Amino acid sequence: MSAAFYQNDINSFKNQNSEEIFGIIAHNDEYDSGAKQKDAWIAQIDILKRALNKIDRGSILFEYTLPRVGGRTDNILLINNTIFVLEFKVGTDTYDSEAIRQVRTYCFDLANYHEESRDRKIVPILIATGVIGTSHKAPEDVILTNGDDLADIILANVGGSDIQIDAIKWANSRYVPTPSIIEAAEILYNNHSVADIAQNSAAENLTKTSDAVQKIIEQSRQNGQKSICFITGVPGAGKTLAGLNIAIENQKTTGQNYSCFLTGNQPLVSVLREALAADDSRQNGTQITEARNKVKSFIQIIHHFRDASLDNLDVPPVDNVVIFDEAQRAWTQPMLSNFMQEKKTAVLNRLTDEQRAHFLSMSEPEMLIDYMNRHDDWAVIVCLVGGGQDINTGEAGIQEWFESLRRSFPDWNVYVSNNITTKEYLGDKSFAELTAGLKCETIDKLHLSVSLRAHRTTDVASFVDALLDNNVEAASESYKRLSGLYPIYITRDLNKAKNWVGAQTEGKTLRHGLIASSNGRRLRAEGIWIESKCKPEKWFLAGRDDIKSSYFMEEAASEFDIQGLEIDYAVVAWDADYRYVNGAFEYFKPSGSRWLTINQEDKKRYLKNAYRVLLTRAREGFVIFVPHGDDSDTTRQCRFYDELWKYLKRVGIEEL
After folding, report:
1. What own/partner pairs with CB < 8 Å and gap ≥ 24 does 578-582 have?
2. At residue 380, does pLDDT exceed 80?
3. Crossing angle, helix 472-482 and helix 638-651, to 10 degrees?
4. Residues 216, 380: contact at Cβ < 8 Å?
5. At the N or C end, where does the chain have fewer CB atoms within 10 A?
């Protein structure tokens, strides 16, 4: 079937009988639309014939279906090098905000993912025929009109270029949306490159970063050097994807398996391993057990790699290149020492007293560098670093990597992104202080500045930062910029929230789910039992008919389950742990039948970052659910939630 119900050049459209045009549209209508829609088509034909009276070139399409997305634009006009996207609301006497968002979203998708629309002028127009008065622009640059002056609008906005868009080529254009981290990992694992994932600025950013690291690896190999590089990025920029790509590219280039991807994020490992194994089995007919074993050597839990360093103290790992995902989450010396003495006594007992004391004195970053330092020739460590992403007790932050290098490995070459100098990454210590005595070089390409996750806009991370920082003005401005591109709502009705995300993904290959803070224990009264752990590989990968999948929204994923992963639409349940009190955020943890105030600065940071993680997991949009509370329950006082609700309203977030 054609991508549009009707497609023709404008001159032929003007000369064709209106009833014949309607007949073609109705014949191609696979949805068997009702009388109201058919009346709208008749009105559209009449309005467009009048509006195009002075236009003698170009093409027109009715009900063009966006490939892979499924949304249908009412009309597309291709005139010279300009694309007009028309959304009709026949008989409507207001410019509905949802309709404005709809036409703006169509334009954004075309501009970013529709190959034949790239670098073209795209003009969004909303036509509400019942409105009285002249046309004007909405804040989202959508032109609003009742249709009377549509001819003037078209003439005023058509580009001056003599180049005419090829309508057939345009209508059959490839549509390349950005895949999820799981889809992207499958693409890379099947011997494709980052450039095959998406043709947009985020993919270019990933390619430049991967190329910069490959250059460091090659220099280190040729010169017999040991190097460590730190890749930074905004939330959702694809740091994990960059790491996977680097590991895979090394295997392709050398034909040897001397690189691996390491992470302490067990849910990420479980989900990626199962997804890659299942895809390998599906694509290549590999037995699922064999496929799982293959991917195990490629994606490893960092703790297993670390513990292997104690098996033989003189032997280096087989890998010359290791990629550490979420390097800021590596453990401090006290955390690692306590863990080793409690859980790894058998391993420690094999060591001499001197060896045992040596290892127990090291932090996890120092132990990992020490293991790679055993190579006689060369080695490269790639650290993927997320700012504001440390969410658990005992995480050392990026500072400890620099301290370890200065303390024990000053001869290593250090390469850092230009963004690692900020407080977001280094805390209270200065970059000069942390790198004193090190051979350190700054490389701009080691920063991933464009979000893949929130591919509709790069403003999501800024909005979340401002929201959690209690910066009403900045959050409000960011929210306004997001309007029409990336929907964010608030509600106090959980069923409304669930129904909204369900409606966004219905009939599409999109995933929705319910997420909440691991400290959100009193959400249980709302039917959200965060203490009942979900199984990540089921939650993220199972289909709509599986009660363990995210679609059922019976199990909520916490920040630990979803960090490093993503879904398309999310319900973010906000409990009284991160509470708004007297104009500022306060921090609490559940303890039996009461909330205890959190006073330690690091634990405050972990809680704030937990909400940062939750609010940056949705690729397409999310709704925040704030309970009403219950004054008869001391742990769910209404005031715990009411002040937060007022704050979110003050920011200007639209209520569902």
Report:
1. 578/517, 578/607, 578/608, 578/610, 578/611, 579/640, 579/643, 579/644, 580/643, 580/644, 580/646, 580/647, 581/643, 582/643
2. yes
3. 60
4. yes
5. N
| For the ranges 268-272, 454-458, 529-533, the one whose mean pLDDT is highest | 529-533
Please tell me the distance from the alpha carbon of residue 180 to that of residue 513, in angstroms, as a whole number: 15
pLDDT of residue 385: 87
Closest-CA residue to 262 (of 227, 231, 301): 301
Alpha-carbon span 627 to 636, nearest angstrom: 9
- pLDDT higher at 358 or 412: 412
What lies within 8 Å, CB to CB, of 193 at 6+ separation is 207, 245, 249
Outline which parts of the chain fall under CATH 3.40.50. Answer: 198-264+299-448, 460-655
Say if residues 584 and 593 touch (Cβ distance below 8 Å).
no
- CATH code given to domain 6-171: 3.40.1350
Q: What is the mean pLDDT of residues 307-329?
A: 85
pLDDT at 375: 95
Is the predicted pLDDT of residue 207 greater than 50, yes or no? yes
Beta strands in 59-120 (DSSP E): 59-65, 72-79, 82-89
Q: Quick one: pLDDT band at residue 351, thresholds 50, 70, 90?
A: confident
Task: Look at the chain and count its residues.
Answer: 656
Q: Please give the pLDDT value at position 342.
A: 84
pLDDT of residue 491: 98
CA distance 557 to 568: 14
One-character DSSP codes across 523-554:
GGGGT--TTS---HHHHHHS-TT-TTSGGG-S
Give the containing element (helix H, strand E) for 340: helix 333-343
Phi first, then psi: what are they for 461, rounded to 5°? -60, -40
What DSSP state is assigned to residue 228?
E
Q: According to the model, what pLDDT value does residue 1 have?
A: 45
Angle (deg, nearest 10), helices 266-284 and 181-189: 50
Vertex 424: Cα angle to 464 and 259 (nearest 5) = 100
Give me 510's structure tokens: 């999109």
Overall fold of domain 198-264+299-448: Rossmann fold (3.40.50)
